[in-house]
Structures are given as C-alpha cells and as structure tokens.
Amino acid sequence: MPDQMSSIPAKINTGDAVIEMTDVNKWYGTFHVLKSINLKINRGERIVICGPSGSGKSTLVRCLNGLENHQKGTITIDGIGLSSGLKAIEKIRRDVGMVFQDFNLFPHMSVLQNLTFAPVWVRKMPKKKSEELAMHYLKRVRIADQAEKFPGQLSGGQQQRVAIARALCMNPKILLFDEPTSALDPEMIKEVLDVMVELAQENITMICVTHEMGFARTVADRIIFMDEGEIVEADNPENFFTNPRYDRTRAFLAQIL
Amino acid sequence: MQTHTQNEPMIFKPLPVQAPPLSLVGPIGWLRVNLFNGWFNSILTIICIAFLGIVIPPLLSWAIFNASWVGDSETCREASGACWTFIGNKIQIFLVGPYPSSETWRPFVAGMLLLFISYGTALRLFHKYLLILLWLLFPFIAFWLINGGVFLVVVDQSRWGGLMLSIGLALVGILVSVPLGIILALGRRSEVIVIKSLCVGIIEPIRGVPLITILFMASVMMPLFLPENLQINNMLRVQVGIILFSSAYMAEVVRGGLQAVPRGQIEAATALGLNYWKMNYLIVIPQALRNVLPSLVGRCIALFKDTSLVIIVGLLDFLGMAKAAAQDSNWLGYDAEAYIFCALVYWVICFSMSRYGRSIELRGATQNQ
C-alpha cells in the first residue's frame, strides 16, 4: 500500500498522558545510560525514537515495561508507578506490548500457539476465543495461512509480523517497538513497515525505536532524538527534519539521510 | 556469450539440474564411500570381514544350533551348546527374585501395566496430560500391587528382587529426579543468594562422590545416626540415595539447557506479562529440556544401569538374581547364559529408552528447521 506511506493525519493532542517519565536515571554499573529523562507521552500518540547506537534509546524503551530497572526518578504508566512492586509491574506488562529486534518468537510453539499463549495464560481467555482473536490478528498482518507453521519455518519478515500480531493479541494500550526492522533483510523491511503504518492509524500508543526515517516522517506525531543518554530534542516530523534546533541533531540527520 | 545491448535486459536462465555421477549413488557408491574409501579403509574392511567370519559361525552354533531350548538340566548336559533351558526354568527368579510364588501375578499385572503405558507413550496414544497422569499414578499402583496392603496380602520388602526391583528403583528414580533436577537447576540460576547457595551446596557434594559411597551411607551409616524408633527401611533409604545422586546430575544437565535458552525468550515472555513460574514452565524449561534431551535420556539409561550397584548393600536386583541363580547346584556352570540373558534384557530396555528419546528429538527437529 504505497499511498499509506504518504499521509496519516496528526492525532489530536488530548493532553491525556499515558506515560510519564520524571527525572529518570539509569546506570549499568558506573556507566550512566539514561540521564535525567523527562518525557510525557499522550494516549494515542505515535513516537519515534532515534539516535546513534549507545545513546540509550533501547534502554529507555525497555524501562517502560520494566525489562530494565531505573535507579532514580519515576515512571508512571497509565497511572501505575513502575516501582510499586511486582504485581503492579505484571499489570503494566499486560497492557504494554513489545516487539523486539530479534522477534523472539517461541520456537517450540506453532505460530497460532505463539499468539494464543499469553491471552490464555495471562488473561485467562478461553482457548477457542483466543484462537479466533489470533486468527483475526494474523489476517491483519496478512499471514493467516501460516498459522500452523513453526517460527523456524518462516522468513524474518514473516516472523516479525507474527511478533506484532502476538503483541496485539494482548490488546495492549501501549506498543513498544525496539528496532523492529534492524535484523531484517532489506527485501523484508517494507512488509513489516507496512503493517506498522496500518497500526499507526489505530488508537494505540506507539513508541518505536527505529532508523527508518521514511517511516518516522509518515507516522510519527513526535520524533525524539537521543544522544549520550539524554533526550536532545523532541519535535514533530516537519520541524525535526527541516529545522532541527541542535547541531548534534543536524549532524545525525546528515549522516543517515 | 551474448552481446549485451544497452536497452534490452539479458535474460537469466538457470543451468539445468544434473544427476550426481553414478559412482556416488546406489549400492556400489555406498560400498565405495563407506567401506573401500582408500587403501587403509579397504584393508580394515577386509580384516573386519575375516574376523567376523571366524567368530560368528561358532557363536551361532553355540547360541542357536546346538543350544538346548526346552527340557531340564539333563537335556542341558547332553547339549554341546548354550543352555537356554536354564533361563526358562529360572525365569521367575530373574524377574521377581524371592517374591512368593503364589503372589507373582501381582508384579506380573504391574509389569503388564508398565508395558501398556510404555507402548502407549511410544506410539503417542495418550493426550499429553493423561500421559503425565499415568506415569505419575503408575508407581503408586505398582507399589500397592507389589507391596500389598488394602485387599492384598503384604509382601515384605526383603522378598522383593529381580528385574522388578531394578525397574522399580530406576523408574521412581527417574520420575523423582528429573523434576528435582529441574528445580535444583533453576535454583542454581536464582538471583536470590540463599537459594543459589543451597542448590550449589546440594549439587556439588553429591556430584563429588561415587554412587557406591552414597548407597553405603544410605544403607549402613544412616541407621547409626537415626534414633531406634525412627528407622526407615533399607530399600527406601537406597531409593532416596539413588534419587539424590541422580538429581544432582540431572540438575547439571538441565542447567546446561537453561543456559542455551536465548535471553530474548525470557524477555519476550516477561514482556507478555508472565510471572516467573509460568515463564519457566511454559517457555524456558520446554526449550531447555529439548536442548539437552540426548544427555537427559543418557542420564536415565545410566540410572537404570546403575541400579545394579544396589547388590553391594544387600538388595537382590536383576543382575544379583542372575548371579544367585547360576549358583544353584542343579544348574552349575551356566553363568554365561545368565549374564548373556541379563545383558540382552538390559540392552532391550536401554535401547528402547534411547529410541524413544530419539523420536522426541526428531519431532522437535521438525519444529526447529
């Protein structure tokens, strides 16, 4: 769908923050990975995070569902604090889907089982209903005919689409993407991006770490540029690409565009 | 070579597929590749064929053509070959040891049940959960049948023996030590330092001593430390010893498998909202076990064979009964037959376990292409 890549209307800013990060700091040993991050993301907002490798963008995203712990500051997801105990974190994780760079599908389960597994075991959904749901999302990512196969039998692009469908099956309020196309062969990047562009039209909050600037330009409400563990600037695509405020951002854009 | 003009693209035509040269396929090809691949291999092959030619005919005539198959000790003495009659006469001793003759139907029923469950397992007749239930229930049913109690006459455990005892010790050993090994392996990887040290403290000392030592400790030393009224019977102590020993090894095998599960699998499961136990039960352990299935089956086979060590603490297992049977004054001089029979039975059981393990592996392999 080539025309989808060109125009998606900007979301209306309702001012309803679904993610709030206040003065978040994180260290790996003595290495300061995240430095005083302050970020508010509104419900339904589509955020793209970019930056050079080692800038802390993946770490930031992984802090949002507690895959990494931050040591200072507060993160609040839909009103629940991420530091308020294991039960709270598990509740948050149920509502925050994640798509990884390496897909991380479960190799010992069929595609269908990969999708039904979390709804059944975490949401206690009846098996039959979860299968209907799974088939619905497999159709959405255009891969329904592969439901009985195992992940190892699919191409990288297909696996990543399954991974997206798996995250959607939990009906998440927030969807995190951690470099979803970086491990793919060039021929397969488009099929995954197409699915993500379609998703961006739904009322789901998307936070996507990616270097695909075409995608960022098309779908993002805001692009966040990070370097050295800090948010250097955050702006809408128009301003970000045509008139970045910082020289660091300009240097980065000059390198990747 | 076509000449390339600027505007028209050249058409790519793949070369046709050709059959491999005849010298590589068919029986001749097989012989060449496997038996006569170079002069050194050819000489080895010829020597081996000559050796087999010398050994096999006398072996066959002893074991089959000149053997005595039916009758009593008289017919055996007349035959120049093997005395299989001896095995036939002593079969009860081999299978159940000194178990009372009037009650042998009970271990027989248990044995049939075991065969039925094994058969169903191998052919995948049962649903996954039923299969687990059957294997968990079987030891209790078998114990009730063999030991007696409700509705049945109690048979003292000093009269248990033979193949029944070997299989019993091994089966309970496997069924308990695999889950225990998994728990120990998970514990060893735990981030909670107390749990981790506890598991290391169990695994390492046990792995550091031979099974015989543990059996001696369980059988001879433990009663010395326990008060008079707390004595546990010998067989149970030996069984616990076997379980502890095997668990430590299973734990190390499973730990190897756990380490091979990619970190991303744990992250993906965590991100979906699974708690620690569900994540391990549904995602990590199935993959870990699949990774180490060959060594796990190997440990089970080793455990079954190790049960023959219980003879040194006074239990009469299969091998022990074979030895005892060969000392019967009516049937002197048939040790070879007894041990060959033992070896054959051990081999059939171990080979079946090995094949079953292989079939699970292959089933997994089709998923991991």
Structural overview:
The complex is a heterodimer of chains A (257) and B (369). In chain A, a hairpin with a 2-residue loop joins strand 9 (222-227) and strand 10 (230-235). Residues 1-7 of chain A have low confidence and may be disordered. A six-stranded mixed beta sheet of chain A has the order 6-7-8-3-9-10, with helices on both faces. In chain A, strands 2-1-4-5 form a four-stranded antiparallel beta sheet, with helices on one face. Chain A has 257 residues and is an alpha/beta fold. Chain A has helices at residues 57-63, 86-95, 111-121, 127-140, 156-169, 186-199, 213-219, 237-242, 247-256, and strands spanning 17-28, 31-42, 46-50, 72-77, 80-81, 96-99, 174-178, 205-209, 222-227, 230-235. Chain B has 369 residues and is mostly helical. Chain B has helices at 26-34, 39-65, 73-78, 84-89, 91-96, 105-122, 128-147, 162-188, 193-207, 211-225, 234-260, 263-271, 276-291, 293-306, 318-325, 335-367; one strand at residues 316-317. In chain B, helix 10 crosses helix 11, helix 11 (234-260) runs antiparallel to helix 14 and helix 14 (293-306) runs antiparallel to helix 16 (335-367). Chain B is flat, with a radius of gyration of 28 Å. Chains A and B meet through helix 2, strand 6 and helix 3 of A and helix 12, helix 13 and helix 16 of B.
What is the element layout, followed by pairings?
The complex is a heterodimer of chains A (257) and B (369).
Chain A: E1 17-28, E2 31-42, E3 46-50, H1 57-63, E4 72-77, E5 80-81, H2 86-95, E6 96-99, H3 111-121, H4 127-140, H5 156-169, E7 174-178, H6 186-199, E8 205-209, H7 213-219, E9 222-227, E10 230-235, H8 237-242, H9 247-256
Parallel strand pairs in A: 3-8, 3-9, 6-7, 7-8
Antiparallel strand pairs in A: 1-2, 1-4, 4-5, 9-10
Helix pairs in contact in A: 3-4, 3-5, 4-5, 5-6
Chain B: H1 26-34, H2 39-65, H3 73-78, H4 84-89, H5 91-96, H6 105-122, H7 128-147, H8 162-188, H9 193-207, H10 211-225, H11 234-260, H12 263-271, H13 276-291, H14 293-306, E1 316-317, H15 318-325, H16 335-367
